[in-house]
Amino acid sequence: MGIGCARSLSCSLCGSLPATCQMAQLPAFSKQDLQKPYNKVAFLVTHNSYSYGIDFGIWAHNQRFSVARQLNDGVRGLMLDLYVGWNDADVRLCHGSCIWSGSTDLLFTLIEIREFLERNTHEVVTIIFEDYLENPRILAKVFDEADISKFVLTSDYWGEVEDWPTLSEMISLGRRLVVFNNVGLTEFPYSTRNMWNFMIESRYGSVSKNPNECKERKESKNHLGERRLLLVNWFTTIPNGLSPCLNDFDHLKRKLTTCYRKFGKWANFLAVDFYSKGSNGGAFKTVQWLNEKLTGSAKSSNLEMFLDFLEDEMREIES
C-alpha cells in the first residue's frame, strides 16, 4: 500500500509530478458476475508470471511480484513456459534458456496456486502453458505432487459449441483451474483439444503495443467460428520494468477496442508485463472496463466507440 493511499491503492509516479494513488488490486467478482459463463468474463493475465526475483536475471524479469502476490492482487491468468528440468521428474519454468535467464520449479508455483484456490473458494484461475516439455505424463505427476489435480476443469466441461460453464458452476464442481497448452497434447492435465481450438490470440512483441492494430497469431487463424475466447497480448519481446507508465488505461482501452472491431468480441484475457505499473488505473481498471463491456452495461454502440476513439486521439495529441 502506497504512502497516503487507501487500501487497494498504491502511490505511483507516472508522468509529471505529483505522484497519484493508482489501483493496486482488482476486486473480486460480484455474485452477479459469478453467474456468467467463463467465456463471458474478462481476466487479468501476467506474461511469464514466474519471471521475478533473485532466481532470474534482472534482464529477464517480466514481473515484479511473486505468483502468490499476483493472485492476491487480482491476477487470474498465468502464462508459464515449461522446460525439461535437471532430472526426469523435474519441470522448470523459464524463458528461452533456463541457464542464461534463470529458472524456477513448476512444483513450487503449482503449490502457490493450489494454496490460493484453497483460501479463496470462489476464485477461478487459468494457466496457459507454452510447453517445451511435451510430456503430459511427467506434468500430471507434478500436478499430483502439488495436490492441485483435483481443481482442474476437465475437457468434458469445456465450451466448444455452447457457452462454457458459469463461474458459479465451476465453483460448485470444485473445478476452478483451467489449463491450456499451445502444442496440441491431449493427456491430463490438458484437454482432448488444445488452446487453438478454443482461443484466438493476438500477436505479442512490438506489434502488440500498437493500439491501432490487432493481428492474430498464425496458430489461431483456423476455424475462428468455433472459438469463444479471445486473448489480447500487450507486451514487447524485451521487457521494460523501468517504465512506471507501462500499462496505460487509455492505450489499453484503445487496443482492446481495435481488437473488438477485428474479431467482433471483447477480450476475455489481457496479458501484460509488470501488471502493477500503469497510469489512469492501468491494467486493473482496463479489466474492470472489459467486464463492463462484456455485460453490456458500458457504452458499446458504433457511434459511442467512435467518440471514445476521438477522445483517445485528443489525449495523444495533448501528450
Automatic annotation (TrEMBL):
GO terms for molecular function: phosphoric diester hydrolase activity. It holds the Pfam family PI-PLC_cat. InterPro entries: PI-PLC_domain, PLC-like_Pdiesterase_TIM-brl. One of its GO terms (biological process) is lipid metabolic process. This is PI-PLC X domain-containing At5g67130.
